[in-house]
Predict the structure.
Amino acid sequence: MEREPSAKELQRYESVRERWEEVCSRCGRCCFERELGDGGEVLVDYASPCRFFDMGTHLCRVYKDRFRKNERCARVTLRVALFDELLPEECAYRQLLREESDGTAAL
Ligand code: SF4
Ligand code: SF4
């Protein structure tokens, strides 16, 4: 069962909650198919981007409408940032919020 966020994780979240969207580094890694490797690492299949992902700009072509256009597109919430095992390790939300990091990801 999913645990509750720790006090430190909640503290980190509170420090960026007002500017949550700005945490995203626009790396685009979450817009590709992903799976877990044997060691639990996230493997990003860069040959399989979402059909709405623009490979030139690295941006979503339907950003404002993304949840309606793509039912598999998920908002990065606190719980996703902390517990989604397929969120890429390099994701700025994951780096900032999880205890596995030191919380010093650049914003
Ligand atoms: S719809 Fe979602 S997964 Fe697809 S490119 Fe846009 S933000 Fe990425
Ligand atoms: S992986 Fe994380 S930092 Fe990169 S685009 Fe997705 S939400 Fe933003």
The pocket of iron/sulfur cluster (ligand 1) is lined by residues 31, 50, 52-53, 60, 62, 66, 69-70, 73 (CB under 6 Å). The first strand starts at residue 32 and ends at 36.
